[in-house]
Design brief:
Elements (H helix, E strand, L loop, with lengths): L6 E4 L5 E5 L5 E8 L2 E8 L4 E6 L5 E6 L5 E6 L4 E7 L6 E4 L3 E5 L4 E5 L4 E6 L11 E2 L4 E5 L5 E7 L4 E9 L3 E6 L5 E6 L4 E6 L5 E6 L8 E6 L5 E6 L3 E6 L2 H25 L5 H9 L11 H12 L3 H8 L5 E4 L7 E8 L2 E8 L3 E6 L6 E2 L2 E6 L8 E5 L6 E3 L11 E4 L4 H14 L3 H11 L2 E6 L9 H6 L9 H11 L15 E4 L3
Parallel strand pairs: 24-28
Antiparallel strand pairs: 1-2, 2-3, 3-4, 5-6, 6-7, 7-8, 9-10, 10-11, 11-12, 13-14, 14-15, 15-16, 17-18, 18-19, 19-20, 21-22, 22-23, 23-24, 25-26, 26-27, 27-29, 29-32, 30-31, 30-33, 33-34
Helix pairs in contact: 1-2, 3-4
Keywords: Autophagy, Repeat, WD repeat
Protein name: WD repeat domain phosphoinositide-interacting protein 2
GO biological process, one term: autophagy
């Protein structure tokens, strides 16, 4: 089942990006700097519909396109399958961190212990969730919608397996949500895509509201916090990417109030030995604001006074909404874009990946905001099934890149600064040229006087590691829990770089005319 475009997915800390290419397998790229994006793994001729990598480890989770109810976990560095999980219905989305793996089905959510893939809990009887919406923080807080008519969501602690608060985030259905890495803040947006809200995840208090646009409703494709939690990046099907600045003072205050309320509740519980509900936490945190709380400046004071005494609630909400702090203008609207914000070197960058297979990296001024300048474009599209074609000069001393757009080191940086779509079109045209018939290739060789060869990695040696011996044949010797645990521990170690000449020495094979 070929897809209409590439499916690109950042890992949890935006240090790598995975690319699904229809029925041509998947590739993983490491993002080391704005001008250094290298392919570290490629697997061809297999069709997957979902991929998720665990941070910067060798552990990846895949959903085969021909078995959508099956979840496959593997160590890509050793090409080892660790386990398969089969569910009653299709797996729509997957989330994971260092402790938990979350598999989202349309009407249920399955929570696994990632150390041994034991299923710990199933959240069932949910409202239909055809988009597989959910978000998982580093500390394993899980948020998911509980209504398919309104924007109501629930927070669940997947470590303690306890149900948390419910938040009525929007009037219409949710289309995207994302936790800060700490799990303290939660951003949401509805299917209308005009308003983005930020809540305190501990008590459900609304901290901030952003206005993405007024003129039209849009489809939100990606909603993510930066790694430091100070900025929120939003992509849609329009030509503009919006970056909002989070009010960290208001956020810190809400979190402190929630934590204080939690401490008070524990004291009351110890003294009275009475059960307290989660609603008590929210009521305690929101109850009574002292006059000293309204000391954030004359503009805030006037806005609150006018909204309280003179204006209806809807108008006051619009006045309180913040506009974009920075923007990125895309060259081709209408496509699906996913975004990320992280530090590359010592500076924060905006990462935007498009479904046509390109990664765009933009500058970002954390102090002044404004328009973010494009600094690099990287081509993440596939080549001839992992084979690199090169030209060899007559004297055989020098090798120059051939018609393929992929160089042996895996990095394909098209351009920096003045990037445009003509470069992408040229790369696409170049790749099409490599797929021409052998007769055309022979004719060209006669005209230019240049011979060709194909550089190809040899077949890897069988895995004779301890983990491979323990695993044995998959069908004849199913993995025990302890063996599975050892494989998982081995997979989450920081991987070494693949495709270096010491591990996979290249072999030259003469091409036939």
């Amino acid at each position: 089942m070929a897809t209409s475009g590439y499916q690109l997915n950042f890992n949890q800390d935006f240090s790598s990006i995975s690319v699904l290419d229809g029925n041509e397998g998947f590739r993983i790229f490491a993002i080391e700097d704005y001008d250094k994006v290298e392919e570290i793994f490629a697997r061809d001729s297999e069709n997957y519909s979902l991929i998720e990598r665990q941070f910067n480890t060798s552990l990846v989770v895949l959903v085969p396109a021909d078995k959508p109810n099956c979840l496959l976990m593997m160590n890509y560095k050793k090409n080892q399958r660790i386990c398969n999980c089969v569910y009653a219905t299709k797996v729509i989305s997957v989330r994971l961190n260092r402790q938990r793996l979350i598999a989202v089905l349309e009407e249920s959510i399955h929570i696994h212990d990632i150390s041994n893939m034991e299923e710990l809990h199933v959240i069932g009887n949910l409202a239909p969730n055809p988009l597989g919406l959910c978000t998982l923080s580093y500390n394993s807080d899980l948020a998911f919608p509980i209504s398919n008519t309104t924007g109501e969501l629930r927070i669940f602690n997947s470590l303690k397996l306890t149900e948390g608060i419910t938040i009525e985030a929007h009037k219409s259905r949710l289309s995207a949500m994302h936790f800060t890495p700490s799990g303290n803040l939660l951003a949401t947006t509805s299917e209308r895509g005009t308003v983005i809200r930020v809540f305190c995840a501990k008590n459900g208090q609304r901290i901030q509201e952003f206005r993405r646009g007024v003129k039209r409703c849009v489809r939100i494709a990606s909603l993510v916090f930066s790694l430091n939690g100070r900025f929120l990046c939003v992509t849609s099907n329009t030509e503009t990417v919006h970056i909002f600045k989070v009010d960290m003072l208001a956020a810190s205050k809400a979190i402190e109030e929630a934590e204080e309320a939690e401490r008070m509740e524990k004291l009351e519980t110890e003294e009275t030995t009475a059960e307290k509900t989660v609603a008590t936490i929210s009521d305690t945190a929101v109850a009574g604001t002292s006059p000293s709380d309204v000391n954030s400046g004359w503009s805030d004071y006037i806005s609150k006074a006018v909204s309280t005494y003179l204006l209806p609630t809807q108008v006051s909400d619009v006045l309180a909404q913040d506009r974009a702090f920075a923007t990125v203008t895309l060259q081709q609207p209408g496509m699906r874009y996913v975004c990320g914000m992280t530090y590359l070197g010592k500076e924060m960058k905006v990462l935007i990946a498009s479904e046509d297979g390109f990664l765009y990296i933009h500058e970002f001024d954390a102090l002044r905001g404004g328009i973010c300048e494009l600094v690099a474009v990287h081509d993440l599209r596939g080549v001839l099934d992992g084979v690199v074609e090169v030209n060899i000069s007559d004297n055989g001393d020098k090798m120059s890149p051939g018609s393929s757009n992929k160089e042996p080191n895996g990095s394909r940086n098209l351009s920096t600064k003045n990037c445009n779509r003509s470069s992408a079109n040229a790369a696409s045209s170049s790749r099409s040229t490599t797929k021409s018939s052998s007769s055309t290739s022979t004719s060209n060789k006669k005209n230019c006087g240049i011979s060709r060869c194909i550089i190809q990695n040899p077949v890897p040696e069988p895995d004779n590691s301890y983990a491979g011996i323990v695993k044995g044949p998959q069908a004849a010797n199913p993995l025990t829990d302890s063996a599975k645990h050892r494989l998982l521990c081995d997979a989450i170690e920081t991987p070494i770089k693949l495709f270096d000449e010491r591990q996979f020495p290249p072999v030259a094979i003469a091409a036939r005319d």
